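Teaching assistant here, posting this on the class forum so everyone can see the example we discussed in section. The complex has two components, and the goal was to see what a joint structure prediction looks like when all of them are supplied at once.
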Amino acid sequence: MSITLDQVTKRYQGSPVVNDVSLEVGEGEFYVLLGPSGSGKSTLLRAIAGLTGVDHGRIALHGNDVTHVSARQRGVGLVFQNYALFRHMTVGENIEFALKVRRMKAAERRERRKELLRLVALEGMDDRLPTQLSGGQQQRVAVARALAHKPPVLLLDEPFGALDAKIREELRRTIRQVQRELKITTVLVTHDQEEAFAMADRIGVMNLGRLLESGRPDELYARPATRFVATFLGAANLLLARQTEQGIRFGAAPVNARRVEKLEGGREQEVVAVLRPEEVELAPTRDNLRTNFIANGIVEEQVFTGAFERMRVRMADGAANAHIASPNTNGGNGSAALLDVTRTQHEQRLFPLALGQSVAIGVRRIHVLPTPLSSYTAYGSDEASCERLSQHPFLVELASRMKTRIIKRSEAPLVACDAPASAPVSGVAVIAAGQKTAEQLQWLLQNGAGEVLVLPAHSSAPQRVLIHWADDSARRSTLAVAASLLRHVAAEAVYVGILPEGSGGESQRPFGVRTLLDARSEAQAVHGLEMRTELRFGAAADELQRQLTESQDPMLILGVSDPAQLRGTFGALFTSGSTYPMMIVYRPSKDSEGAVE
Amino acid sequence: MAGGPSKEMLAEIASRPGRDTLISSAVKYVFIALSLGFLAALLFAPLATVFITALSKGWEMYFESFKDEDTLAAIKLTLTVAAIVVPTNTIFGIAAAWAIAKFEFRGKSFLITLIDLPIAVSPVISGLVYVLLFGAQGWFGLWLQERDISIIFAVPGIVLATMFVTFPYVARELIPLMQQLGNDEEEAAITLGAGGLMTFFHVTLPKIRWGLVYGVILCNARAMGEFGAVSVVSGHVRGLTTTMPLHVEILYNEYNFVGAFAVASLLTVLAVLTLIIKSLVEMKRK
């Protein structure tokens, strides 16, 4: 591997700007770090170059650990957004700078300079000053300068940011050509997904300091694992659907989507589906559709963009309730059921459309996100408490980042926890922390909840998320929930493994450590979640309580396989009325339900 | 057609007599005349007087006045002080500007205020501070006397006072420049393998050179011309602790007008030279 990052973390004023990033870039690979501004991608690049130190983790170049090696010794080739050419030196002097530092002979320097100028197509420009060159030419010089000393890797920090579209494209091609010719491992940072698609062998998408997903451009586009990647890489409609035995169902209409991956447990549940605008088919009536019908709709907006026609279609029927991601609405509700659709010229000719026309909507291909967190439902014993809970800043922030909605549901039985709920719980149930948290949790779990978020009245966004599960059968689903949640929260994840004290607790240490490592590698491999691990000895509830009180702005994700565990093993956590958010994950253990994997 | 004025309207605007332009150009000339007149009265007239008086008894007497030993000593002292003060303040100015422009630290704004202090404080006070510290009755006076070190009424005092007064010029010039130019070139140099010294001399210094030269020129002009602070600490010992500005005053008080104005004219020539170099630098910077 040319570049290996292992759990690299960089904090700025306490909060992580680069959060547990692990990454391997192969020999000669062109890797693009893609993310919005402030996602930590540039900081990560500077950390690889050695210009920024890291607080935690390891960086290796070609197998050599360089975590504590200075930028000067690392000698990577770095290209800046604003060129950073030495303005008082000529093009030739700029390129020869690194060679002069290395005391190379003048003749050899000249040779290398000529070769580099040929590479970036700037022959004969040796004696110009940077100010006499255009932006595109300056950046070519910067690339040549960065390559002069044959660096182990080439790093490009938004190299096209200051250039206009035409030159950008040309320079893109040059850089890709140079990279192929030299077979040099390259990392490019950008916020432009088109640029990422055009150049990358592999793309890594970053948000909130985390590397969310990493993969080939076509794979990431077709099968994103997270909402963020789905909506950041190209346009996407996010729809809430129910996964049933027969397939995916939007509102009343079943969609026979064959290529949907089976989710764990096989139980019927709410899922988040990704529908690309170009995978939508529009037809005059349901019978004219060649694909699966999902709803009827009305054309609300129509924009001609040259090759494509872009439109927004308002969905009618029950499916209107399924639409959750709309850029203009916060979380959204049924009234914002606008579906983004793009059509090719060919499609436009086959079925010309006008504003206000009603159409039947079909889908060619649908992708279900493997996230267990679909939507939030705020539960309270009356309307007022529901309303209050749904306004909770952390919940609102979480829902808007996840581009999902918050439903309010008042349930009188929540007070006594005796009668069954009026409707089965779907998505994540949210309750306010209080004296009866444990009873309410149990009641929700009995009514079909798989995940419950407990929010104290005053709690800020967590900085440190502790993860724990009661027994192994809850591991998988707890990790899935933790991974999904942590993609939307800028916090550090720590798995706390707890072994009973006494009765040879110390002798169990090797076993405990192995459990931790297994958990860590599973989190990484299956869920793309990077987390630390800690091993404790003692009673689970006490140890967790201690850890939580010691951390600043903590949150707990707790997995159980039996509702009784909440009052038994972990009872102590609920008696005091918690001051931190808690996410309870419940999956019945396999043997008690006999479900298949 | 929606938006924008019609074709007729545009033509009408274009054909309007330049009423606005007429007024504004009149205003322009009035202001130029005003400021020129002001300058003539306040600056050129005194300057002319300096040279006319200095040459009133002919060139011979003019050059004769420079043969006076005390005058030569004053010129020498002024140049010595400048030779010590300017390089010292250049180095400290670069260091201070570097610290302020490149790093974030507590008390940064306090440091910036401190650098500005000598400009805000009256030069006489700056001189008095040193008398208070190192004078016979000062805090360190006795201690210095015991060791036979004289600072006040001697060259070290003059150097210190001048240094204090001229400190801001280099730093003040460099801070905004360095902040504006940023750190990228230095970082590029480091990733290319350059060490700290090489980065400074081959990247940073050439980058800031014109700003630096400008600051040094201003610093030098002030160092040679400083009167107030130096006057307090010098003690006016003829031939020993009088700098050129002080010497001008002494000669004038002795009714040696030709001598006084001859030295003054030399100072003026130095100042004008400085200004010429300054404008050349400014042209070069653009």
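For the discussion questions: Chain B has a mean pLDDT of 86. Residues 19-54 of chain B form the longest helix (36 residues). Think about how each of these relates to the inputs above.
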